Amino acid sequence: MLELAQRMVFCALVCSVYARASCPPRCECSEAAHTVKCVSKDLRSVPAGIPGYTRNLFITGNHIGRIGPECFQGLDNVTNLSLSNNRISEVESHTFAGLRSLRYLDLSNNQLTSIHPEGFSVHNHSLRELNLSRALYNHSAVTDLAMSLRWSSLGSLQVLDLSGNGLIFLPLHIFAQLGRLRRLQLSNNSLVAIHNATFRGLERLEELDLTFNTLKSIPEEGLRELDDLPAASRLLLGDNPFTCTCAIEPLALWLNGSRGRVRDAEGLACAFPPDMRNVSLLAAADLTLGCHQRAAGADLALQTSYVFLGLVLGLVGLVFLFVLYLNRKGIKKRVNEARDACREVWEGYHYRYEMDSDPRLSQVSSCADA
């Protein structure tokens, strides 16, 4: 009996060691480093049998089309998960909910077209960094992402990378639920404007990268949006095609007062028009004098034209009244004649009405005519 018990214990230990040492096919596992790598192995899905000791999981450079909650069951210890460059197009509901310790998630260089509203929900709000650079395939993915950032309980997220996605605009309130976000990467997109409520809710944001976009200017509405980021001490605006006309005035003045926050303010330059190319945007504030002079001249000319028009209309009115005064007798005579003519016409209509309404009078009238 004792021998049987010893054999059972021995078998359990062997099985335990084997299970801890097992590694999915075409993957590399290191128990000492708590790391599993499945890199460029032409995988079509997340491999099964990933060891439970895994903390760093790299499944990159494969051909995985979709990911769901069944892909990561039993991986409570994973803190860093990289799924970059896998051609992933769909993220299902609660895909990462089983990763109770997940802090860093990399989905960069994929082709996301469908993201469930709760696709990024993680147990205990553990996720701190989310990398979605070059991951959104089309406009519908941007809409899905906005919904997911609102519904996926990412209140503890601190870093979000959306660079290189060709974004032309950002849906309003897209970051409203990311109250602890500290760094937001929006570089290498095609953003054309910053609107009201674009960054609403980012009260703790420290760094905002808007480099390499298509911003020609930032109107006062957008500048107020940037000013409403109280903790943002690192703003980056370089490599945008700023157009230095009078419309650049609010931005140029704002930059001169915000050099401490805009870290690359000294390097910002005009791209258009050609005669202003490479002129410092800080120096472009001098254009405001010319703009104000032209605006003042235009206002003065407009006011002068209004005064002149008023004088002309007043003079015409006086002439008209003078002509009426000189012809007052003739006008009175014509008015009386018109009144008498109207009275005669009215009496004629009245007589005919009485004739038509009384049959006897109509018969007498017909006999008289005969």
TrEMBL record:
<keyword id="KW-0812">Transmembrane</keyword>
<feature type="signal peptide">
    <location>
        <begin position="1"/>
        <end position="19"/>
    </location>
</feature>
<protein>
    <recommendedName>
        <fullName>Trophoblast glycoprotein</fullName>
    </recommendedName>
</protein>
<keyword id="KW-0732">Signal</keyword>
<dbReference type="GO" id="GO:0090090">
    <property type="term" value="P:negative regulation of canonical Wnt signaling pathway"/>
</dbReference>
<dbReference type="GO" id="GO:0005886">
    <property type="term" value="C:plasma membrane"/>
</dbReference>
<feature type="transmembrane region" description="Helical">
    <location>
        <begin position="306"/>
        <end position="326"/>
    </location>
</feature>
<keyword id="KW-0472">Membrane</keyword>
<keyword id="KW-0433">Leucine-rich repeat</keyword>
<dbReference type="InterPro" id="IPR000483">
    <property type="entry name" value="Cys-rich_flank_reg_C"/>
</dbReference>
<dbReference type="InterPro" id="IPR003591">
    <property type="entry name" value="Leu-rich_rpt_typical-subtyp"/>
</dbReference>
<keyword id="KW-1133">Transmembrane helix</keyword>
<dbReference type="Pfam" id="PF00560">
    <property type="entry name" value="LRR_1"/>
</dbReference>
<feature type="domain" description="LRRNT">
    <location>
        <begin position="22"/>
        <end position="56"/>
    </location>
</feature>
<dbReference type="InterPro" id="IPR000372">
    <property type="entry name" value="LRRNT"/>
</dbReference>
<dbReference type="Pfam" id="PF13855">
    <property type="entry name" value="LRR_8"/>
</dbReference>
<dbReference type="InterPro" id="IPR052286">
    <property type="entry name" value="Wnt_signaling_inhibitor"/>
</dbReference>
<dbReference type="InterPro" id="IPR001611">
    <property type="entry name" value="Leu-rich_rpt"/>
</dbReference>
<feature type="domain" description="LRRCT">
    <location>
        <begin position="240"/>
        <end position="292"/>
    </location>
</feature>
<keyword id="KW-0677">Repeat</keyword>
<dbReference type="InterPro" id="IPR032675">
    <property type="entry name" value="LRR_dom_sf"/>
</dbReference>
